[in-house]
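Researcher: We're teaching a course module on how sequence relates to structure. For the next exercise, students receive a sequence and then see the predicted structure as tokens, so they can try to spot secondary structure elements on their own. Here is the exercise chain.
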Amino acid sequence: MAINYNGDIAVVLDSQHRTPGNLRAFVQATLRSIRTGKSSDVRFSSTEKIEPVPMISRKMEYSYKDGEDYVFTDPENYESVTLAKELVGESKDYLVENGVVTVTFVEEKAVTIEIPSSVFLLVTDAPEGIRGDSANNVQKTCTLETGIHCQVPLFIKTGEKIKVDTRTGKYMERA
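Model: And here is the predicted structure for the students to work with:
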């Protein structure tokens, strides 16, 4: 959700409703300003009114990395958007060329990026597993095409595609 706060548009990153003992209830929210990009914790009383700002979400494809920034393209009209590395954050570890993500815009400015819950990545380096220790679930560390490391079963080899959970970074299955 995006709101108009102190003459600036801010995206609500997190909110919690609190009712402490014998005091009045309030909402504690973490807001990120679109103009400055800075986050702040704000306390709203239960009687305060806030003005919501409409947000638009669009499916976009990751195209390429341009220096420190990331370029995404809308598959419908081929319009491209360049996002800063701060906005992409940890999602960069799961971005592959032509991978679909959801980009949320407020007043024609990108504010958040959402990646799918799982992605298929190519294994670029998987050392041979040590045979014989198969009494329990033995795993080895492999390197994926985006440069991240992942624990996988011994049977995974270099050149295979695997499905990885983007929330935990763990191996799910072979593709």
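Model: If you want an answer key for the exercise: The helical segments are 85-88. The first strand starts at residue 2 and ends at 5.
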